Amino acid sequence: MTKNNRLAPTRRALTALLATGLIALGSGTSARADDSGGLESFLDAVASPRGASYAVVVDTSQSMADDGSYDKVRAVLPTFLKSLRSKDRVCLIPFSDGAPACEMVSRDEALQNLDATLPTRPDGTASNFGRAFEQALDGLQRTDTDVCGVLLLSDAELDAPDDPRYRDFGASGWSALRRQASGLPSDRSLTGYGISLRSGTDVKNVLAKVFPSYRMLDTSGTRISAAMTQAQDDTRLRQAALSVDGDRGKGIAVSWPGTRKGRPVPAASDIRVRLTATTKALPVRLTGLRIAGLPEGVALASDLPGSVDLRPGESRDLDLSVRSATTRHKGWKSDSEPETWNLSVTGKVSTPLATAARRYVGKDARLAGGPVGEPLAVEGTARTSADPLRWIAAAVAFLALLVPCCVWLLRRHRPVQGTVSAEAVDARMPLQIPLQGRREVTADLSSLLESAGTVKIKSVPGPLREQPPIRLRCRTADRPEREIICTPGQTVLLCGIEFHYTTLPAQRM
Question: What is the pTM of this model?
């Protein structure tokens, strides 16, 4: 078994511990990693593809020879460099009274140049932390990575008597270094990590002096390899947290390849919709996919997938086929006219790593709620036909108006079935006037009078279920028109004539 394999269980345990600690610091809650594989997969998926940058600052003063501290550092550095990702960048800065420039290189190049970069024995005359940090910050500011880490390995003795800028912690150069370390853009993160090769406080003090964010990983010099692995994993967790924040508000963009903006597309033609993940780190998932804007009666000729999964920046095309016409029963007659439909893609956007982001870095993956993009204008044909329901509704409305009108007319002009007999004083026989269901009857009274005369008989308005009274209006040659109301079975005297009103026994209204 190789040394790398022997360190793997320790590394996984440290990574899970770091993830739990970061959540506790950031949100006040704790979380337990499901397993190391889940955390490693999350970091591999979400940590920035640009990689991280590391400046490894190694003290080469003579005091590092004590207790074999320098030999321990040289022994673990190859393991640390091999564990870096292919996109990571690293520079090794040996320092004593001064420090060389920090040139960021790949892990493979750093391994090749390790012996040439670090002296075989520590023979420096000073431990000038300030000059080492100057070079480290200059090198890190020239990288394009979003997360940086400075690893300081020293025996905890500040010794720079000939440098007025960094002679002691009260010298003037430290404030400038602090401003430089604090001046990174908001989308970049820098942390200083301290590994003290023997007991002392100078390593912690110098980190606190320069870096707004710093951590002491080892204060005894007995677990150098584990501390360097811890620094790397902590850097990747910070990188993952930045990536989750950087994808906030992003999701899926919708476009329509092969179409011209502002020009409707014929509905009968093939239509292609392109879904593109706008995230840089988080994979996205679209569920409940639906094409909105299709008119009633028009459906897609092909089924849409239930969900679509996209890697960051990945695109996927879906081919749609839309029928060219729709038929609607909404008019009084059949007709056909062109119509424009605005199609858009709807659904719910999420990420499969939402739970892992909350668990490992204490961040909510707040993506856009749905796909974003301009709708597509599609030109089709709308055919309308006579709507039977509309005609039925019109007929019902007409009847609803007709029935009350008929009832009102019947109540006002009730038909009467019966007989009115008219008898004069000196007439031999009475005159029988049949009503026979007519609303108004006019009878000639000449046979009962010495002069001409008429009588008009009309029902009186009232409820239909009752036997209606009648109104008699009599006009003679020598007298003005007179009228009287006569109820069923009643006899009245009008114009010198007795009128008797008799209804049929079967009449019931």
Answer: 0.63
